[in-house]
Amino acid sequence: MRSLTLHLKILIAILVVLGISVTCYQIFVLGIPVTEDATDDLWNIDAKVEFVANPKDPVKIQMFVPPLSRDFVSLNESFISNNYGVSVNRTDGNRKVTWSARRAKGNQTLYYRLVLTKRYSGEKIKVKGPTFRDSIAVEGPEKIAAEALLAPIRQHSADVETFITEAIKRTNNLSDDNVKLLLAGDPSTAHKAKIVELLLSIAHVPVEKVHTIRLVADQPQSPELWLRSFNGSDWLYFNPETGEQGLPADRLLWWTGDENLITVDGGKKALVTFSLNNSEMNAIRLAKLTDENTDANFLEYSLYGLPLQTQQTFMIMVMIPIGVLVILILRNLIGLQTLGTFTPVLIALAFRETQLGFGIVLFTIITALGLSLRSYLEHLKLQMLPRLSVVLTFVVVLIAAISLFSHKLGLERGLSVALFPMVILTMTIERLSITWEERGANHALKVAIGTLFAASLAHIIMSVPELIYFVFTFPAILLILVGFMLAMGRYRGYRLTELVRFKAFLKADQ
Locate the 7 transmembrane helices usually fused to an inactive transglutaminase domain: which residues (predicted)? Predict the structure, then answer.
């Protein structure tokens, strides 16, 4: 007996831990939303390209577009142009679109449009980088100034991260004579980044320029320069103005390197204007779109991977254990008497179509009339099988009659009575009549009321939209329910209704 108890405890612990672990993995690692009403940001980015084409020359425009290999995934990407050929190529970790035309004249306008969202999958794409680089050749006073700046940088740094941060801070100290010499009167951010790159190359620390777009709606945008370096395991991002480490979450990496955003052959006065707007979409729908537009399959092996019609069926099926749990608690802990465990649950499922109030009325009418017929058939001394056959046929005729009269009276809700399980109603009538004969009318009425109450409560709980979504999205929660049901299977304590019985018993002793 002791070994059996230990075995049951281990089984319950395994089921509960497994259910919690899978559910937490879906929520915290895969990022699946906990509520159906949760929404996530959807960004629409337009890059407007304007230039003046030379009338006698072929036109070729090249522009960097986001690689989308870090924290974002593209849901839609389009290149809008008139009479231009379009191709997209990858070079040195970047993506570049090329528009080309044999002839063009005058002012030209092209558009690049991107719809993106945060990457849902917990697995981020990691791109490795170099950990060593050769020194940039520098001679004369510039070399002396660079070495003079490097000495305190080495002294005040402990690793790659602090070395780069210190180098950026020293470069932004415009009162330093060595910095003035290296900047040569050009204190722009791009030139400062070039000086930082020079200093780091002498120390053989690789660094590259990163051009980003800030995800802020309805504000003029221009690419923002950042620096990054690979420390052997992760990319470290730095603000070239302050040395602050860490790329903000609202930055979209557009391209890397020293090249300009756009190059135009056969044209002049090129200008790129960015405009962004933000919208919200249902989180689980957005997760599905993310799944479809990437190689991720974190929803493919969930119930959302089933056909839509099958999903609707499973949304009902996964709630049956919830209804069973309600009946189990009502019977084993509270002591409510019902006609078995599954009969109230099946009646609760029928209430989904008839609605609760109308369903209770229909159930009461059909059961009362069926009991009357069962009582009449008892006087005929029929065997059980023929008696059940007659009751079943009577239930079908009664359902048809109620549906017909409801239609004539304009009560369309009454048509749903046909969805009541006829076999369940027949067996309910039969079992209630047997209970009536064996234990009296009062007990039969008590069981009928208990069954109807349990079915109503189960229906109310099984119809909560938030609960349906949660169980359907995280079905591993059912393992936790199984663990609780197993624990309830060994419960031998008092039920709440027994307190009333024993209270009267105690009064009799006094």
Answer: 260-505
